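FORM 12-B: Structure-to-Sequence Request
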């Protein structure tokens, strides 16, 4: 008897209210996680710069054992070892991405700016009767169950974090079987635009949500207040800093929510989604705030599209960034000369008039479909939490 399922790993995130003891234990753990990550990163960097040696995960794991035995790092033994091992695995992943040219060189975690989080695998927590108890804690976490876990679900990984606004979150990775989406044969190409958030090959333009402008104005005000508080003025400065963090958290929450709705809609409406492969390395340097947010959104959105396509059996295809999507006429296929960024609309020799972004999205779609039809040069690119390759990737083709 075989059971046909489309089982996937899915993260369920909730807020929780730690006791004072739990908050203290977790804060200690976050500190140790950061320390171990930084020590291992330093060791790996030095081994490479001094001796051209690559250090792997197992070696950093052995280092961790020796650090715990040393006098000045003995405090690392005061917290659960599970999140410390996990952070070494994350560092390994960061290096794999760096060597695969998918990410920049890993950066040190700073006490103030880095995300405070700790990841526990099954040996680091107990989940029983709907109650979650972490290693070195007696009482289960007081979780605010804003939605139920799937029937009979047992988390395989638990991540605890605290955001800059001071809110506590627990994210549980569980097996889940997503409800199927209606069948469709639609295909869509997406252009990550400069003027709008994205443009679809259907001609639709998705702009940045209107609430963002207001939120950003609020952020600028809060930052101005913070800047005026003198360094010595402890209490007021801390208050102003929390205010800035709260506005940041609100922006991130609303944007995430917006991107979730958008990506779910795209996946629901289409069987095939074609995107441009904008890797971190290739991204155009631009220091404007709007652009930075837009880039971050694109990265988040791509991740969402990857796992949602895997969940619902849709196809996500990434075409190489240097494919000349802007300069190719989607009507006749002829290649134009230079196309400065300020040209928003143009007319081809064949008589077709194009909106720059819509034309690019149409080309992205055509390029992506040719990849799926001939199947040549397709390789799995990244793995989803469920372990299935979600993205097909076209081999690089440089602009002539
Ligand atoms: Zn043309």
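FORM 12-B RESPONSE
SEQUENCE OUT:
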């Amino acid at each position: 008897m075989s059971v046909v399922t489309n089982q996937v790993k899915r993260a369920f995130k909730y807020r929780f209210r730690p006791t004072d003891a739990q908050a203290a234990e977790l804060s200690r753990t976050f500190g140790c996680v950061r320390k171990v990550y930084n020590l291992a990163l330093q060791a790996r960097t030095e081994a490479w710069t001094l001796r051209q040696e690559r250090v792997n995960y197992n070696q950093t794991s052995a280092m961790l054992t020796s650090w715990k035995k040393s006098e000045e790092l003995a405090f690392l033994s005061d917290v659960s070892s599970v999140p410390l091992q996990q952070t070494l695995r994350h560092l390994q992943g960061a290096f794999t991405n760096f060597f695969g040219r998918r990410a920049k060189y890993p950066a040190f975690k700073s006490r103030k700016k880095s995300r405070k989080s700790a990841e526990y695998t099954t040996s680091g927590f107990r989940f029983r009767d709907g109650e979650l108890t972490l290693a070195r804690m007696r009482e289960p976490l007081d979780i605010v169950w804003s939605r139920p876990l799937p029937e009979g679900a047992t988390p395989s990984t638990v991540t605890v974090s605290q955001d800059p606004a001071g809110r506590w979150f627990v994210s549980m990775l569980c097996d889940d079987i997503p409800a199927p989406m209606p069948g469709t044969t639609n295909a869509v190409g997406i252009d990550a635009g400069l003027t709008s958030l994205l443009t679809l090959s259907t001609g639709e333009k998705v702009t940045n949500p209107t609430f963002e402008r207001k939120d950003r104005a609020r952020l600028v005000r809060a930052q101005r207040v913070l800047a005026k508080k003198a360094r010595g003025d402890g209490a007021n400065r801390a208050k102003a800093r929390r205010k800035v963090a709260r506005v940041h958290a609100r922006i991130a929450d609303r944007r995430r929510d917006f991107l979730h709705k958008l990506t779910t809609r795209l996946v629901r409406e289409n069987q095939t989604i074609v995107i441009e492969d904008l890797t971190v390395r290739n991204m155009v340097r631009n220091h404007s705030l709007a652009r930075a947010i837009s880039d971050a959104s694109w990265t988040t959105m791509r991740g969402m599209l990857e796992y949602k396509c895997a969940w619902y059996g849709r196809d996500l295809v990434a075409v190489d960034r240097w494919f000349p999507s802007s300069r190719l006429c989607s009507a006749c296929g002829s290649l134009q000369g230079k196309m400065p960024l300020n040209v928003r609309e143009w007319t081809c020799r064949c008589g077709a008039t194009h909106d720059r972004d819509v034309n690019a999205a149409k080309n992205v779609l055509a390029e992506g479909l040719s990849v799926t039809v001939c199947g040549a040069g397709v390789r799995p690119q990244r793995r989803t939490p469920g372990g299935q390759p979600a993205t097909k990737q076209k081999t690089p083709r440089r602009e002539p």
